[in-house]
Amino acid sequence: MKSTYHIHSPLVNIPINQQFEMGVLVVKLILLHSLFTATFILCSSSMHLNHYPLTGRLQGNETDWLALLAIKAQIQHDPNKVTSSWNDSLHFCMWHGVTCSRRHRQRVTKLELGSLALVGSISPHIGNLSFLRGLNLKNNSFTHQIPPQIGNLHRLQVLALNNNSLNGTIPANISNCFKLTILILIRNNLVGKIPPQLSSLSKLQVLSLQWNNLTREIPASFGNLSSLEAFAVTSNNLEGSIPSSLCQLKKLTFFASDVNRLSGIIPSCIYNLSGIVQFVVSVNQIQGTLPSNLSNGFPNLQLFSIAENQFTGPIPWSISNAINLVSFHCARNKLTGHVPNIQNLHNLRIFFVDDNNLGSGKQGDLSFVSELINATLLTRLVFSHNNFGGTLPKSVSNLSTNLDTLWFSGNQLHGSIPVGLGNLVNLQILVTEENSFTGTIPTDIGRLSSLKALYLNNNQLSGRIPTSLGNLTLLTILYLQENNLEGSIPSSLGKYHWLLELVLSGNNLNGTIPPQVFGLSSLSTILALDRNNLTGSLPMEIGELKNLGVLNVSNNFLSGELPNSLGNCESLEALHLQGNSFNGLIPSSMKELRGIRDLDISRNNFSGEIPQFFERFGNMENLNISFNQFWGALPTGGIFKNASATSVTGNARLCGGIANFRLPVCKSNKSKGGGLSRRMKLMISLVSGFTLLGLAVVLSLFFLGKKRKESELSTMGKSMLQLSYATILKATDGFSSIKLVWVLLDLYTKEYLLKIALLLL
């Protein structure tokens, strides 16, 4: 059975979070160009600060002065005291963040208060700054709604309110700002539909609404935004299909509608927007096939991402001509067929085709890997969970030394893992899991000094674990489970100072567990060594695993008592010790494992009474103590109230508990309820024994002489002082009446009978 362990690796979010790197770059370039143009216009019309008089109230425009004071009044927290200069001691055109125009009688043309940690709301008096051309309040903590009075700013060209906490809807009358070229509302809490009225902004070049809670459809009227170059609505709740009217946006270079709920098919005319540089529609419900002339329609294409949709059919062969392509991401669709020839994609850095139905399961499916040798800038290559067959080309070791991610799990690959992977010196993530690789683990993997995650699990690898793996000192995840590895666990694994997860389950490993492994205090997620042939006991070093969540050493040949230091593993949520030969009592230190949820110590030789502190494990969801040698009363509180979550079978001397366990009723403990003590039982047993032997004792004493009697009384009286209660207890096998009789007979023949008589006196 294959292991169920599959803790999420650091790479889980890479396909979504990293796919926009080039997109962000293009937006920045567009914004930089636009902001430079706007700044140039503003600065060229502004006057030098030293030309302003010192009293702005009398010399400047009072409307603007009052508007700025109203804006200041709405700022509740100003940790950098940037508005402290906003007072009568300076002309308002000299206030921090304020730019004025000389030509228009000292009117405010630019308000720059971005990235100042300001807290408050945007005053509706902002609408009185009628000469304002640039408003930048980005990267602050402004709340409440965007005031609709912004629609009064007919000269406004740049509006940047991104990275705040603004809520409510987007004011439709922003459409009155007919000179607007850049509108950025990224990362707020805006709701409602995108106002279709914005389509009247014929000069708008950048519309960026990402990371809000906008709903409804993309307005079809947006096809009228004839100047639009960048359109981004990533991470909202938009529905419907991409309107075909967007095909009219001939200047469009950047399109991103990913992480929404869009459906339907992409209009074919969209693929004829020859200016497109980046096209991102990932994480939607879009269907259909990709056009065969994809790269012909997008001749300037650099980033293409359709991941996590429902696309079918093949990857277009024309992609071979997309010589400017930097990132290609079509993961998690239903694509079929072969990967086209990509040897001309010299600029390629990211290539994700995972989780599709690509390949035929035969040799030659991975020819594209050899073709990627020409992509000298390649950093991430992921083709996992497809139908690729055959062997992994040896040329994989000749891929770009910039490669940091190589992931080809879940295919039908066989043969050995090629020697030479150690050449990929910047590799950080290597995932070969769930294939049919055979042979040994290449020792030169130990040369990958930058490696952070290594997944070789669920293959048919054999041989020993190379000691060279200990050189991977930056490793955080090591998965080698479900192979045929043998030999001992190398102590060199103790060099991992950053390791979070170590799973070696389901192999043929033997020998003792190196104490260095238990000394890996960095382990915080899982340590799994189960289903091997490991021997020995758990060392005291196990107490170093104070941050560990899951410990599984089940189904080995481990023995001995549990160390008291186990109680130091206070973060444990799951502890699996079943199927070994552990013995002795459960250490009282385990009461410190207060967060334990899953405890399985079945099929061992533990003995004694079940610890009462098991009842106090409030988070316990599963407890299995079956097939041990526990005795006494089964607790009735805590987890023991739930018979379906607790297994106690195979402990013949247990009694009590709730009725569902069907255990025998416990006999009353008379030693605690006024019953006979052990000493009294001894007295009664002795008297019973003497009754049976009374006649023999009397006859024996009768034939003893008085002188000899006195002498022996003296001698045996002294010896009597050396006969202890414990000696009698042991000799009589717990005061068994039958055993006692035989002991007394033996004592008599050895002339020790008088010692017992003296003890009773």
From TrEMBL:
<keyword id="KW-0812">Transmembrane</keyword>
<feature type="domain" description="Leucine-rich repeat-containing N-terminal plant-type">
    <location>
        <begin position="62"/>
        <end position="101"/>
    </location>
</feature>
<dbReference type="Pfam" id="PF08263">
    <property type="entry name" value="LRRNT_2"/>
</dbReference>
<dbReference type="InterPro" id="IPR013210">
    <property type="entry name" value="LRR_N_plant-typ"/>
</dbReference>
<keyword id="KW-0325">Glycoprotein</keyword>
<feature type="transmembrane region" description="Helical">
    <location>
        <begin position="20"/>
        <end position="43"/>
    </location>
</feature>
<keyword id="KW-0547">Nucleotide-binding</keyword>
<keyword id="KW-0808">Transferase</keyword>
<keyword id="KW-0677">Repeat</keyword>
<dbReference type="GO" id="GO:0004674">
    <property type="term" value="F:protein serine/threonine kinase activity"/>
</dbReference>
<keyword id="KW-0067">ATP-binding</keyword>
<keyword id="KW-1003">Cell membrane</keyword>
<keyword id="KW-0675">Receptor</keyword>
<dbReference type="InterPro" id="IPR032675">
    <property type="entry name" value="LRR_dom_sf"/>
</dbReference>
<comment type="similarity">
    <text>Belongs to the RLP family.</text>
</comment>
<keyword id="KW-0723">Serine/threonine-protein kinase</keyword>
<dbReference type="GO" id="GO:0005886">
    <property type="term" value="C:plasma membrane"/>
</dbReference>
<keyword id="KW-1133">Transmembrane helix</keyword>
<keyword id="KW-0732">Signal</keyword>
<dbReference type="Pfam" id="PF00560">
    <property type="entry name" value="LRR_1"/>
</dbReference>
<keyword id="KW-0418">Kinase</keyword>
<protein>
    <recommendedName>
        <fullName>non-specific serine/threonine protein kinase</fullName>
        <ecNumber>2.7.11.1</ecNumber>
    </recommendedName>
</protein>
<feature type="transmembrane region" description="Helical">
    <location>
        <begin position="682"/>
        <end position="703"/>
    </location>
</feature>
<dbReference type="GO" id="GO:0005524">
    <property type="term" value="F:ATP binding"/>
</dbReference>
<keyword id="KW-0433">Leucine-rich repeat</keyword>
<dbReference type="InterPro" id="IPR003591">
    <property type="entry name" value="Leu-rich_rpt_typical-subtyp"/>
</dbReference>
<dbReference type="InterPro" id="IPR001611">
    <property type="entry name" value="Leu-rich_rpt"/>
</dbReference>
<keyword id="KW-0472">Membrane</keyword>
